[in-house]
Design a protein that fits this description.
This protein is mainly beta and 153 residues long. It has no helices and 6 strands. Strands 1, 2, 3, 4, 5 and 6 form a 6-stranded mixed β-sheet that branches. The N and C termini lie far apart (39 Å).
Length: 153
Amino acid sequence: MSGSASNYLCLPEHPQWNTYRMKNQISGTIYGVEYELEYINLFSEANNGGNPLQDNPAPCAVCYVGGRSTVIMLPAKTQCLDGWTTEYQGYLVSNADGYQATTYICWDEAPEVAVGGINQNKASIFHIEVHCGSLPCSVYGNGKELACVVCSK
């Protein structure tokens, strides 16, 4: 599969429009992000009322921390460095191999589902698995899903 861009965007619930044309033309496309966790779901479903995440739209979230100027995402970590504050921890996700490339992001370990949307399998959230070789297999076990933590200071 291919697509227009390679990064996830946080779109507002209520968009504002400039001039636009409702005409079929050659253009880029954008889709809402949905969960693709059919084969493995390490996420808690507690914030979703215990309902499955699979094929449901994923909501947007922005990390804002008043009074702190630096926010960092640490892949392959579950705790922040000394002197840093944990904002949340979870799992490293992106689109899957064979799909349009996206950025890696740290997804909260207990995600929610956005209201509305249908299953399109265009922009999706998949767990990131380690494939060791250039990463040392003794440290990064092959097939393990990577954790992550978001920290501020």
